[in-house]
Amino acid sequence: MSESDVWLVVGLGNPGPSYAGHRHNVGYLVTDVLAERMGSKFKSHKTGRADVVEGRLQPGGPRVVLARARCYMNESGGPVKALASFYKVEPDHVIAIHDELDIAFGTLRVKLGGGDNGHNGLRSMRSSLGTGDFFRVRAGIGRPPGRQEVADFVLSNYSTVEKKELPFQVIDAADGVECLIAEGLEKTQQRFNS
């Protein structure tokens, strides 16, 4: 772990109201919950490339910067790199929250490092940070039904049934982020990777 006591928590998604309810935007939903817990709202960062919330998730805990890039998912690495440089955060203090096709809907997995598995947001982050060695909080969305294209699936709204369960998944993911920062990877995986 780096000496930095600042964590950069990135909610991956696409900006704007037309994308708000999409499966690809679960990272935004989780950062909304975390911002609420910090008692603050997203504001434009000096770089102009992201919206951020700065604060602490626990009294006396480390500083946390919640971030959402102001660009499309596949270009999010640039703004993340700019924020990491600005706040002097090493990759081992970066957490990306994202949708994951290979995990069933409603399921959560937390890990350190790995490939991008075809996820454009992760690919962009790996490329810009020069490493994949950052934490990932992976919110399962499952595979598309039938022959639906993956791109169409991730850029579609949750089903009616999923919408009822979604708040629980989002709260779980927010809890996972808090646990990761407070207690480390092993305890977080034991609790959430069930």
Automatic annotation (TrEMBL):
<feature type="site" description="Discriminates between blocked and unblocked aminoacyl-tRNA">
    <location>
        <position position="14"/>
    </location>
</feature>
<comment type="function">
    <text>Hydrolyzes ribosome-free peptidyl-tRNAs (with 1 or more amino acids incorporated), which drop off the ribosome during protein synthesis, or as a result of ribosome stalling.</text>
</comment>
<dbReference type="GO" id="GO:0006515">
    <property type="term" value="P:protein quality control for misfolded or incompletely synthesized proteins"/>
</dbReference>
<dbReference type="InterPro" id="IPR018171">
    <property type="entry name" value="Pept_tRNA_hydro_CS"/>
</dbReference>
<keyword id="KW-0820">tRNA-binding</keyword>
<dbReference type="InterPro" id="IPR001328">
    <property type="entry name" value="Pept_tRNA_hydro"/>
</dbReference>
<dbReference type="GO" id="GO:0072344">
    <property type="term" value="P:rescue of stalled ribosome"/>
</dbReference>
<dbReference type="GO" id="GO:0005737">
    <property type="term" value="C:cytoplasm"/>
</dbReference>
<comment type="function">
    <text>Catalyzes the release of premature peptidyl moieties from peptidyl-tRNA molecules trapped in stalled 50S ribosomal subunits, and thus maintains levels of free tRNAs and 50S ribosomes.</text>
</comment>
<dbReference type="InterPro" id="IPR036416">
    <property type="entry name" value="Pept_tRNA_hydro_sf"/>
</dbReference>
<dbReference type="GO" id="GO:0004045">
    <property type="term" value="F:peptidyl-tRNA hydrolase activity"/>
</dbReference>
<protein>
    <recommendedName>
        <fullName>Peptidyl-tRNA hydrolase</fullName>
        <ecNumber>3.1.1.29</ecNumber>
    </recommendedName>
</protein>
<comment type="subunit">
    <text>Monomer.</text>
</comment>
<dbReference type="Pfam" id="PF01195">
    <property type="entry name" value="Pept_tRNA_hydro"/>
</dbReference>
<feature type="binding site">
    <location>
        <position position="120"/>
    </location>
    <ligand>
        <name>tRNA</name>
    </ligand>
</feature>
<keyword id="KW-0694">RNA-binding</keyword>
<feature type="binding site">
    <location>
        <position position="74"/>
    </location>
    <ligand>
        <name>tRNA</name>
    </ligand>
</feature>
<comment type="similarity">
    <text>Belongs to the PTH family.</text>
</comment>
<feature type="active site" description="Proton acceptor">
    <location>
        <position position="24"/>
    </location>
</feature>
<feature type="binding site">
    <location>
        <position position="72"/>
    </location>
    <ligand>
        <name>tRNA</name>
    </ligand>
</feature>
<feature type="site" description="Stabilizes the basic form of H active site to accept a proton">
    <location>
        <position position="99"/>
    </location>
</feature>
<keyword id="KW-0963">Cytoplasm</keyword>
<dbReference type="GO" id="GO:0000049">
    <property type="term" value="F:tRNA binding"/>
</dbReference>
<keyword id="KW-0378">Hydrolase</keyword>
<feature type="binding site">
    <location>
        <position position="19"/>
    </location>
    <ligand>
        <name>tRNA</name>
    </ligand>
</feature>
